[in-house]
Amino acid sequence: MQDGIFIGGGGADYAEKQYLDLKYANRHGLVAGATGTGKTVTLQILAESFSKAGVPVFLSDVKGDLSGLALAGSEGFKLHEAFTSRATKIGFDDYGYESFPVTFWDLFGRSGHPVRTTVSEMGPLLISRLMDLSEAQEGILNIAFRVADEQGLALYDLKDLQAMLVWVGENAAELTLRYGNVSPSSIGTIQRRLLVLENQGGQNLFGEPALELSDIMRTDPDGRGRINILASDKLMSSPRLYATFLLWLLSELFEELPEVGDPDKPKLVFFFDEAHLLFDDSPKALVDKVEQVARLIRSKGVGVYFVTQNPADVPEDVLGQLGNRIQHALRAFTAKDKKHLRLAAETYRENPRFDTELAIREVGVGEAVTSMLQKKGVPGVVERTLIRPPSSQLGPISEAQRKTVIDTSPIAGKYEALKDRDSAYEELKKRAERAAAEAEAAEEREAEAEEQEREHRTARRYSGTKVGRSTSRRSRSDDSFGEAVANVFIKELKGTTGRRIVRGLLGGLFRGR
Q: In terms of CB atoms within 10 Å, which end of the chain has fewer, N or C?
């Protein structure tokens, strides 16, 4: 099959060769199976094959094993004989070792190029998900974004968002009348969650230069698609940050890419490893968004492949859209496990030659039960398949080798230096400084006026002129009590006390920055 990706198959007890048709590769897919059954190798051979077909790939390296894609396998590897034997058995006639063009990315900027977005680009929905905010807290975050947009305040990084929330708190009374209740306690909770997010490394995600999608959709001069690998071994210690970033990236692809209909091959293939992290405890609104993106993004030429231990980890509405499936072994020790196994088997088109449920339990490491979309997008009959061996190195590369790949990358140096343009934080800081300066100037004017008044009165006393009462119709004693209080308050605001109030409300945030 010239226009397909060779998955495996063959052998005496197995069906003919199994291919994933590139024309239907953007109809999404599922790679599932228990730990240690071969999902990572399957992910590796899919990335290799898409790259050779000229399709860029984005995947996350959860265990640190997929960096081997950057180097060719070798005959000295301990599994060399097993690989060549399997290649012969399944009819993989042109099997050989080769490396692939790889770009390493890392949210923390240590094991790859830094990858960032801005607070504005991620938006209040995903940031609320990232911090696990309540509905009321999410509402306040929406108000902060709305006001920032109205006042032209750019939200690039976390300090911009923190400054904006302080401003919202200081103007809560006015904003409550316009948008609804703005609770100081809710603002305090959001600020604490932002601090936790910052401590987890979230500040590395937000800032500039932000990721340009074109940089993950590159092809090399030889026509092969680049394989973008997100270093996720350390990122997995913050699973919500990991899942939210990948969901943001998927949403950005959906928003920015043009419609292409049904292309001959995908523009990009996106692998979402540890997919259960995306759906665990997610609000229905977020699950609905994922379902919508998965349903519509295929018309943008993007194929999404969820990688997880059990198909039950993926909601039914999303699972129903995953036409290409590679199911490694599932273990069934409990009643719940058996139920999930039965449900997984029922999603396949039956093969009269074997029992699907039993096959899912029996397949060994490197074997799978597969079903690929065929003509007109019809699911193929389920087959037992021996997965083809990888051509690149199995296992991680050394740190020195990784550094060489990073340094020779076509985007080397583009994202490494962090930029800090004027944004909400700087603008609000300037406003606070102007307010403090105006208060100080008002105090000086008041002091000068009082000094002039004292000099005037002193001069009249020494000249022998009687200081008369005001000729104004309205004497000071006629002032209303409310006006007297207001005058005192205004005087205090202009004086030292007032200056301290202004600095406390508007300037305190920026001390120590």
A: C
Please provide residue 208's backbone torsions phi and psi, each rounded to the nearest 5 degrees: -130, 155
Same domain, 231 and 95: yes
Quote the domain boundaries for residue 147.
119-204
**pTM > 0.70:** yes
Residue 433 contacts residue 484 (beta carbons within 8 Å) = no
| Contact by Cβ (8 Å): 170, 118 | no
Question: What are phi and psi for residue 244, nearest 5 degrees?
Answer: -70, -40
Locate tokens 């006639």: which residue? 93
Q: Could you give phi then psi for residue 41, rounded to 5 degrees?
A: -65, -40
Per-residue CA distances from 207 to 12, 161, 321, 365, 427 (Å): 56, 12, 34, 43, 16
- State the CB neighbour count (10 A cutoff) for residue 209: 14
Residue with tokens 């399709």: 55
Q: How many domains are contained in the chain?
A: 3
Long-range residue pairs from 334-338, CB within 8 A, at least 24 positions apart, any chain: none
Residues 88 and 199 in one domain: no
Summarize pLDDT for 222-257 with one digit per residue, the tens. 999 999 999 998 888 888 899 889 989 999 999 999
